[in-house]
Description:
By secondary structure, the chain is α+β, with helices and mostly antiparallel strands. About 20% of the residues lie in helices and about 30% in strands. It folds into two domains: about 5-240, Glutamine Phosphoribosylpyrophosphate, subunit 1, domain 1, CATH 3.60.20; about 250-290, no CATH class.
Amino acid sequence: MSHNIIILSICIISSNFLFSQDTFSIVAVDSITGEVGSAGASCVDLFQAGLPTDDFLGVLVPGVGAINTQAYYLVANQNNATNKMQQGLTPTQIIQWLVANDVQGNSAIRQYGITALINGSPQAAAHTGTATNNYKNHILGPNYSIQGNILLGQQILDSMESRFLAEEGDLACKLMAALQGANIVGADTRCAANGTSSLFAFVKVAQPADAMNSPSFIASVRTPNNSGIEPIDSLQSIFSQMHTCSEASIEELLNKDKELVKIIDFMGRETNFKPNTALIFIYSDGTRERVIKLAD
């Protein structure tokens, strides 16, 4: 994947700074490629907030993991989480530390999603504070965490998870698909009057050899309040110009010249082919492919 950075900005950046409340996001890792990624969106006008980047809520530690810090976002908590990940703590240990050591002593208003590769195996953990704004919740998978607050409802998180799992492309494609799962007017309820899901959106992925704070892939969009511009649609347009998500059918995968040796699930357990299930095909030449085939 080439080093690509595109940021779409609409309107003029304000000089005002605001610690904002953020809504739906996802962090994920790929245990095959070692990639780590983050994506998210929120109904916060970043022009008024005066933030220089649109991807501030996500931190990627190349080859290790990803951290999303949201709800009542505080950069000091985010920095602490990053330090703990670099020290080798697991996602669960980082969450426990953050809850016990909130910089303002108020972890009840925070929300975190963390995933990491621990000895090559994916782990995920999350925290949704009891005092974050409703609707709030998180979903954990073997290699991902999806979280949100000020949501239309649980259906936003469920849709993000469904789209993430169904996408057959690489990690960047899966993260973009997850955001499309929340492309619903009022997904962040504050944006219902704007006719959009949110006001900014981003997706970024770091490869193991990337430098800290310099991911191989990043795309983001910010739009002003009352513009009526859907940032996830704008982000998808940018994404599609930067990156291709291939969609191989199960028949194409099975009819390759190389021989299929075995099929494993995302926990590394050998299994038979199953529809509606994310699987990994391992071939005689040592290559692997992630596969999910939805039942008709």
